[in-house]
Fold:
Amino acid sequence: MGKRDTVILEIVTSEKRVEVTDLAERLGVSSVTMRKDLDELQARGLVIREHGCAMLANPSDVGGRLAYHYEKKRSIARRASELVDDGSTIMVESGSCCALLVRELADAHKNVTVISNSAFIAGYVRDSASVEVTLLGGSYQRDSQVMVGPLVRTCAQEFFVDRLFVGTDGWIDGVGFTNADQMRADAVRSMAQAASEVVVLTESEKFAHHGAVPLRLCDAAVTLVTDADIKPAWRKSVEAMGYGVIVAGS
Structure:
């Protein structure tokens, strides 16, 4: 994705709905070029074109969330991809950073097998022959496009991997990472039992928020991969839990 695409996403994320002609004028390109750029972004599920305007995809959908702080998330995903060896098998839970991680692996031709409860991720890399996705069964959540419920736990028990990559909705000092959805949090715990290490991918701003459901990863080896804007107090809080910290771009 080029610099112009990133600027387009920043504008659309900020203003929600922008006319195509206005975008073209502000970025100094023709309307034809702008429509091509938007077509490519729409194909990635990041924006929607409608009646001469561009708008952000459904923010409740993983595709819509991808557009928010895209470059920061992509930097986190790229750094996390360095933890994955060619030919290895990993588990990946849902989330925008996690989806971008799998995309990075697909583009790098690492020949990785991804075990996931995310139907979105499976579709996101369907064009790549270098990543094979095994989907865990369960009850399907439409907006997040993930499988949840007891069947996820049953399926996860059939595997054991070195690393599980997960997202998070926030942080509570002394408690740890949190999720806004109880069923998704339970899915993370179930998958964590099948991994030697849990790697949490998130933008640092999530530390200013928290979900209602603690992930309770205290029994697992946990590593955080985040961006360079993480505040020293937040990093200290993470390290106080015994978790490792990796800062993308450092």
